[in-house]
From TrEMBL:
It comes from the Bacteria. Residues 1-18 form the signal peptide. This is Uncharacterized protein DUF3857. It comes from Lutibacter oceani. Keywords: Signal.
Amino acid sequence: MKKIASLFILITTIITSAQNKSTNNFGITSKELNLKIYEKDSTANALVLFESGNSEFKEDRYNIIIRTKYYYKIKIFNRDGYKNASFSIPLYNNKNNFDKIKDIKAVTHNLKENTPLEKDQIFEEKVNENWKLVKFTMPNLTEGCIIEVSYTIETPFKFNLTGWEFQSDIPKLFSQFKASIPGNYVYNRQLKGYLKLKTNSSTIKKNCFRVTGFSGHSDCEEVVYEMENIPAFEEEDYMTDTDNFLAKIKFELSETKWFDGKVYKYTKTWGDVDKEFKKDKNIGTQIKKANYFKDKLPIEITSLPSEIEKAKSIYYFIQNHFKWNEKYSIFKNVNVKNAFEKKTGNVGEINISLINALKLANLNAELVVLSVRNNGFATKLYPVISDFNYLIAKVNIDGTYFLLDATEKLLPFGLLPFRCLNGYGRVMDFEKDSYWIDIKPNEKNITNLTALLELKEDGTIIGKIRKYYSGYNAFLRREKSFSLQEDDLISEFESSFTDLEVINYEIINKDEKEKPLIENFEVKIENLDNVNTIYFNPFFDEKFSKNPFKQKNRLYPVDFGYPRQFSTNFSLEVPDNFNIESFPKNKSIALNDNGGNFSLLIRKNQNFKITMKSDFKIKKPIYFNVEYYLLKELFNQVINSQKTPIILKKI
């Protein structure tokens, strides 16, 4: 339920966790109304002047509810900021109970008039059996207006006290969250993101909570969390799920202690979780189906002499047998037998089948649960099973181990899908205690372009180009080679260079997943316009056209997922009737601590040959914010060098 709520919150134009300072204290100042621009972010289309919220536990007709008052005050600078004046508030219900929204109050303030939101401007939309949305857009919007909105939500679902998001896609001057939590309810709390709290206070209020029919009172913890001058969160390339980095305080119900002495625990130890997993019908029960594969695995596989050969053969057998249905489904709808018979299945069915098959062959195989990149990081502070949404296999051979996922047809043994490169996972041993494991990416992911070319006297260039790919670079190119016709691959390459024609094309190791992928091109670049000056880029299509890093500063890490290397070896023979006028300058730049580098060495052998060797290495999967500036500058240097042509002039 929390996951669905988070989804709806993210798609609202203003994060609906912005909550109320005082719903009876509407009002703006002339300074706020006359504000033309936010000096700390002149690009902002809107600015949260103030947002606050107050959650408290109340008795309501023999039911305990959480009542939360929400309040926003938002400055709209221009038309692009109008989207921040539309609200979509999710409400949950089940067969026994439901969320309620009440006391909606909203006003648009302009220089000349104030326009309230009317009841007939508020709509409900049913999403499914459990969810509906209350939606409205503020009236009479103009550039420079200020909107104020408040409402109250009452929920009987104690898991719905989930915390507070301080940061969104527009900047905020001030954000505040208050809660009064009876001692009967214990919540784990976690501060996420890279911003610091201005206020983090907790006090005890005596005898603040009681329930009809039970004797005694409970004390309440009154917490206050505040942040100020919060920058807008900007997404950039090379990052995992935004939920990892947005500034927020996260609550999760750990246990309840009732007045009659009963205690209900919701957050368990890993020992408890291990036991539950072992009995779970979708994991523990399905992982015991090894014997089912006794007559499914070919004898030529199970009789292989070495463990590594056996493991590889089983991996490719399962990979080839199944078609992945694009669903994860690790905690529900997992049935190994049905999936094997249908030859299609979800992540749980395919990879648990792989583990069972490995076990049948007497290999030491284990199950690893993890959270994929777009699902956020799984917390290590305490078990949160809902943090995990994926599982893979781990096979231990001769003192080392391999992490395997058989859902992708073109992945070689030992290479995980990119979505799985999210830091770590939890190995569920089922015989011993579970434990954390780092998910380390493949180190050698190389793209190499080698060009041996000759310039003819008429300005035509002929020669051969070889492109070599390994690791993830090979997987991505192999994936494309299967998705496109050969003519389309050729056309794509030809389009990267003016007047280039591919005379012959060859692709090597297309079906050999564990070998590097190689493409050979025989090319001809005609001088159709008979120009006397030729501008030639030796990088062809293996170059960066723009810097993916645009922010002045970045608070969160740059996560490439895996290290990568791009190299070019280029040679051009030049006839007597052409002169080599200019070419890119030699360059060498390196990041600190051997984190990466770019080098370019170009040589002019008198006037009849020019050679170039270039290397660009990203040596780490993750770079932290203190490394951002130098990483950004490294890319700038690469781009500047790669866009500088070799200039050849006819004599």
